[in-house]
Every structure is written in C-alpha cells, then in structure tokens.
Design brief:
Glutathione S-transferase Yfyf (Class Pi), Chain A, domain 2, 211 residues, binds glutathione, 8 helices, 2 domains, alpha+beta, Glutaredoxin
C-alpha cells in the first residue's frame, strides 16, 4: 500500500493531509510552491496530472484528483465507517454534504474571495454571487445548528471537505453573523489532526487573500 500526496502551499490539499493524519495512514508528501505572480501551481504538478491541481494523490500507482473523490476513496481504502457513515439514515446526507462542498459551494465562495484581487466582480456578477454565498452559508449554518458536525454528530469526510471553504470564507470576512457555523469551524480547528495538517502543510489560506 502506498499513498503519495502532492501538496501545494495554501491549498485544498491540506484536506488530504488532515484526513490521512486523522486516519493514521502513512504517506509520502511532495511539496509544491505557487508561482508568486500568478499564484498558479508550478509546472512540476502538471507532470503528475494534466490538470495541475492540488490535491493530487497517487494511490498504489494510480493518479487521482478531486478532493471529494480522493476523500471518499481514501476512507474506503484506509478508514472506518466513522469517517464515512454507511448506515441508511446517514449515508445519503454524508454523500450529499461531501459533494456539496466542491460541487455547489466552492465556486461562489472562491470567486467572491478572489474578486478583490482581480479588480472586483462588478455589480451584476457581484450581486449574483453575493446572494448565492448567503444562501450557501445559511444552509451550512442550519446544518450545524444544534449539531456538532454535518452528519451523524461525529467527524466525517464531509466536514474535512467543507472546512477549507469555511476557512476561505472566514479569511474573506464572509461568515457574517452565523454563530453556529463559526463555532463549528472552531471545533474543527481544535482537532489535533487538523492542527497537525497546518503544522505539516503550512497555512491553508494565503493571508493576503483575506484582504
Ligand atoms: N475541485 C477541485 C479543485 C482543485 C483546485 O482548484 N485546487 C487549487 C488549489 S486550492 C489549485 O490546484 N490551484 C492551482 C492552479 O490552478 O494552478 C478539488 O477539490 O480538488
């Protein structure tokens, strides 16, 4: 069994460090630095996978991208049911939240966060994305109101996928008055494996992104 993680500084690949640390799975890590001007991944990452994205993992020789798929597969191979609920009640919600993070939430959050660094979004796009961000964060806030985690009241892969986007939202001052969501993010930050992922991989968010 071999797991190689290609980790890009200030990126979603911290999710995978966190998950591997949470599971106690041994892995090798290859570090990549962003181009200081473009903030893009370096050409070396494109030699591993043509999309040149982080996270990229190589599991037993098979190359894979996409955080949600990577999280699902790593838990399937090396984790336990606690990180990926399999019972009929929690399984649908688990898969929904795991894929909601990158499928629906990441676009509006990331573009809203990046907007100021690229000269602003303009009133039409800014208004469209702003309303979307409000709806998405309200949805996540509701899910963790009176619940410790997104699904089944224990940490799952869905929380690990979600945390990066909440960190981006927090750095960009998008979290607003959502005490349940803030408390949930704080609970995630306090987990030893989360803290270890930051120690190993560096900060998840480029400080200047917060503005
Ligand atoms: N949906 C993908 C998104 C991957 C992605 O956009 N990663 C960013 C880092 S957070 C990246 O590799 N950026 C560098 C680049 O595009 O050059 C996932 O969740 O894995």
């Amino acid at each position: 069994m071999s797991v190689v993680l290609h980790h890009l500084e200030y990126s979603r690949s911290t999710r995978v460090i966190w998950l591997l640390e949470e599971m106690g799975t041994p892995y090798e890590m290859v570090r990549h630095q962003r181009d200081p001007q473009t903030f893009r991944a370096p050409p070396e990452l494109a030699q591993v996978h043509p999309l040149s994205k982080a996270p990229t993992v190589i599991i037993d020789g098979h190359v894979m991208v996409e955080s949600g798929a990577i999280i699902e597969y790593l838990i399937e191979r090396f984790g336990s049911e606690t990180l990926a609920p399999a019972n009929a009640k929690d399984r649908p919600a688990y898969l929904e939240w795991l894929h909601f993070a990158e499928g629906t939430m990441s676009g509006p959050i990331i573009f809203t966060a990046l907007g100021p660094r690229f000269g602003g979004l303009g009133p039409m796009l800014g208004g469209f994305l702003g309303a979307e961000v409000t709806k998405l964060l309200d949805h996540a806030d509701k899910a963790v109101t009176d619940h410790e985690f997104l699904v089944g009241d224990r940490l799952s892969g869905a929380d690990i996928n979600m945390a990066y986007l909440l960190e981006v939202a927090d750095a960009s001052k998008l979290l607003g008055e959502r005490p349940a969501l803030r408390a949930y993010l704080q609970r995630l930050r306090e987990r030893p494996a989360y803290q270890k992922s930051i120690e190993i991989g560096g900060p998840m968010i480029f400080a200047a992104m917060g503005g």
